[in-house]
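Slide 14.
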Amino acid sequence: MGCSIWRCGLIAGAVFGAAVAILGGILIPLGNSIIRGTVEKEAVIEPGTTAYDNWVATGAKVYRQFWFFDVKNSIEVLQYGARPVVVEKGPYTYITRYLPKENVTFNPNQTVSFLLPMGAIFEPSMSVGPEEDKVTSLNLAVAGAYSLVPKVLHSLLENMIKTSNSSLFHRRTVRELLWGYTDPLLKGLVGLFAPYNGTYDGFYTVHNGKGDISKVGIIDRWRGEKSLRFWDDKYCNMINGTDASSFPPFVDKKKPLYFFSSDICRSVSAGFQESQDLKGIEVYRYTLQPNTLASPTVNPDNRCFCRDPQTTKNCTMAGVLDISSCQNGKPIYISLPHFLFGSEDLRETVLGLHPSEEHHVTYMDVEPTTGFTLRFAKRIQVNMMYGPSKVITVLKKVKDYTIFPLVWLNETAALDDATADMFKKELISRINLLEIIQQALLGVGVAILALCLISYVCSKKRSNPSRFV
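Slide 15: predicted structure.
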């Protein structure tokens, strides 16, 4: 016995609804596959891809802001051995990384090599004063010579210090401290970042992602080597991850992100903290972990980064990294600003420091689908060490080894509105549209199927009520 036109229509509607729902369900993995394929294609570093255009050029403006530690009681330190008291002075802001990569070379093994030119342009509108502002700071030449000259020759160094009229502290302009000045003691150029303009970071060789997108951007070699030579250990000499400007796509927030920083001469990792909205784009915020510069007693992996047990209290001091091995022996120590996450001793030997996670932690905001870093703040403090001496007059009142904060920097960049709009139009809007279509088809299909089935059952009940008694 056939069905009525009404019932046949309901059955057909149910079948149609089921088909629409199935189509919506099929589109979910199909759509994800389309998105993955598109991202994998555009994330490869080769001419013509979105990744290459953003990679080879400078992209968003990168600013490097400096805060100096101005010494307020230098005479008391020299004459009575008082603890230095410092006041933060800054920011003094520069535009950096404004030059595109040079000597870009594509290699047969699916890697690409390049040089990263260095440059800095002062930005007065984002600074508290001109580069001619003066700061009382630790004398780089005296502190450096104290560590580099053997103790048996300290009497000779004492004569040189007196002859050049040098002291433990000196007053110099911001420009001199950062980019260099002719020092009377060493008779040469001295500066925290001298030389800088006209120099290069690299030579880098990174995977281009072709054939294996999970490797894109990962450093294969730095300065022609697959590992570092600064540390007396294979683990500490490893070059891990990317340069932090981007990561392989489809970021898993359960896993840390690894990157290498030439500024600190080592590789580090960052962990997921939270999701944030950046100009309408969801990003994952990753932060440098507190145990990155922990003492080896807390983080045994850091044992090979401890080079001088004497100045680090037998490797129990937290919060500083001795990078003298990659600074031609100069006693440079790297830390987070104001010795954030560092040992209390560091803030007791120098007064006036106030660490704050909000202002001093390093973070990266990564778009999870593409792996692009859309905003970051790299915060590093540069310190130098000096200690007591029975021979050198300006150090006779010093009671113990001191790791002195010179300057901390905040290197930042964030995508602008135009780039954000383009990013949302080219990627986010397409993903959202596909998801809306998937959900709409699935929802409408299920609704039609349910409505038709309910109507069919009700129709059968009305036409033959005795069967339901």
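Speaker note: The longest helix spans residues 417-463.
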